[in-house]
Amino acid sequence: MTSTNFSAHTIIILFLLQFLVVGTFAQSKLQSPSWNVENTRRDASPVKIHVKEGTWMNLDISPDGSRIVFDLLGDIYSIPATGGIGTPLTSDLAWQMQPSFSPDGNHIVYTSDEGGGENIWIMDLDGGNKRAVSSETFRMVNSPAWSPDGKSIAVRKHFTGTRSLGAGEIWAYPSAGGDGKKLTSRPNEQKDMGEPAFSPDGRYVYYSQDVTPGAIFEYSKDSEKGIYAIKRLDLQSGEIEVVLSGRGGAIRPTLSHDGSKLAYISRVDFQSTLFVYDLQTGKKTAVYHKLDRDKQAAWAIDGVYPAMSWTPDDTGILFWANGQINRVQVESKIATTIPFEVSREKIQNKTLRFTKNIDEENFEDEDMSKIQKSRSKLGMFCKALRSCRRVFILFFVMLWASKYIKQSPIIQCFRWSGSSCLSPG
Q: Which listed site, 12, 42, 147, 180, has its alpha carbon 20 to 30 Å from 321?
């Protein structure tokens, strides 16, 4: 009778021990902090920014012509259309870029890595109510472009193969959120495709594509022979046709609001130049000759040139060049600068840097070895800390139950006869 009580008691204790082990392990998993791009490290420090120029700035003008949005140093700002002091619409550690007003003028779409990787986001005009449109965890998406009805957003989606460079496809995502739909297929794993733009009637999606021969990406290609072409996809028939190509290439397709003209960029004797193409007559007109160098001969995952915008009345084009926001009148070709100023303080995480003397006969990466050892020790330490709670619980339970377990027939059986006590008979 006594041995039977001990056996039942032992089984109950063993069951409780198993419950404690599994329960505390699961709890430790649930409570482990997740990585967040917005987390500020201990070595973070404030940095003051006061600039009147910017580099590689994507911009757009509101449908009513009153405001301009642009990206600068990973944040998005808004200024009056006549110029002024930038109002920050984002102010965090995430990298935000490529803002564009919705057709109704009530929202701004943009690209952000706030969720850990590049996805498409939407916010209100004042920067509030930010929400993710896409939720990609591996394939980066960027270069958002609204459909005329505001229900869809065309993007460039990035794919990689055996080489890190990769290639793009044009996809569309519902602006309300949801899964994307592929519109075009990449012809290979290394030649790029991007910079989507809807036609005003919503029938076509224009985009730029590297059309050089072969399937291998090469740097320093000859732009005089043509590198990029502008194509358009007919969403009704599924047909794709080349709109512009040839010497100097053609990039950054930007449709006028009435759909009659296409602003684009091409090289003239290696100089990136802004053109206007009449879609009805086929006439090409150069309107600005002093753009910064485009990235046709390089890798252009975020666009071959920063996004630009027609004015609401289609008389002018706003674009970035020479560090400034510029406006050119299409008919007169007279360009003026729209002044802006950004003055603020941001928090930045310190860049990890390691010194290494390379003037040695035998170069050994000791720093990386130290880093790997440190990570290993840190991982073991953290794992040990997570186990402490379970160890202490198990210790005290075992201490309390030891007098029963020592006398348990099950324990005695294993001690003297191994697993034979579980044999039939």
A: 147
Return the axis-axis angle of helices 2-31 and 409-417, rounded to nearest 10°. 90
Please state the φ and ψ torsions of residue 241, each to the nearest 5 degrees. -130, 150
Total Cβ atoms within 10 A of residue 362: 4
Spatial neighbors of 248 by CB under 8 A, at least 6 apart, are: 223, 224, 226, 266, 267, 268, 273
Predicted local confidence at residue 423, as pLDDT: 44
Query: Strand 67-72 relative to strand 271-278: parallel, antiparallel, unpaired?
Result: unpaired
**What per-residue confidence (pLDDT) applies to 26?**
46
Q: What would the two tokens of residue 288 be?
A: 């600005």
Q: If DSSP codes are grouped into helix, strand and coil, which group holds residue 60?
A: strand
Q: What is the pLDDT of residue 368?
A: 55
Between the alpha carbon of residue 363 and those of residues 42, 128, 367, the distances in Å are 32, 52, 11
Give the 3-state secondary structure of residue 63: coil
Q: Report the b/e string of 273-305 with b at 16+ CB within 10 A.
A: bbbbbeeeeeeeeebbeebeebbbbeebbbbbb
Q: Which run of H or of E encompasses 343?
A: strand 340-348
Measured between alpha carbons, how far is 80 from 69 in angstroms, rounded to an integer? 9
Cβ neighbours around 142 below 10 Å, total: 23
Residue pair 271/249 in contact (Cβ under 8 Å)? The answer is no
Q: Can you read off the two tokens belonging to residue 49? A: 């920014």
Neighbours of 53 (CB within 10 A): 13
Nearby residues of 16 by Cβ (< 8 Å), 6 or more positions away? 397
CA–chain centroid gap for 74, Å, is 12
Report the largest interatomic distance among the alpha carbons of the chain, rounded to a whole angstrom.
107
Query: Tokens 């928090």 — which residue?
Result: 347
**What's the CA dihedral at 273, 278, 279, 282 to 10 degrees?**
-90
Instruction: Say if CB 13 and CB 390 are below 8 A apart.
Output: no
Residue 384 has what pLDDT? 55
Q: Which residues of the chain have pLDDT under 70?
A: 1-35, 363-425
- d(CA 16, CA 44) in angstroms, rounded, equals 46
Q: Which helix (H) or strand (E) holds 86?
A: none
Q: In what order do the strands lie in the sheet with 131-132?
A: 96-101, 107-112, 119-124, 131-132
154, 204 in Cβ contact below 8 A? no
Total length of the chain: 425
CB atoms near residue 336 (< 10 Å): 13
Q: Which of 256, 245, 319, 247 lies closest to 289 in space, CA to CA?
A: 319
